[in-house]
Structure prediction request, 89 residues.
Amino acid sequence: MLQTSCPDPKLKHIMCSMLDWSNCPEVERAKDKVSGAWVFRGTRVPVRALFENLETGATIDQFLEWFPGVTSKQVVAVLAHAEQSLAEV
Prediction:
């Protein structure tokens, strides 16, 4: 069971707007889907929703419960991608 919350809320804006999500296989983007925002593949759930929920104190398990179309594999991949991307900065 995953019980992680976002360690630094200031990272939300960096993760959602500055990272190159095109290299993360668990997300996608289409002009006609959620106004072109990056979303979890196969859903209409924006990636930013994960970081916004973690920022407000939600756990990953809660996020997965609230957004049943998103899988734990997707969340782990998005967090790993963000971590790796930030390590390269």
Remarks:
- The first helix runs from residue 11 to 17.
- The radius of gyration is 12 Å.
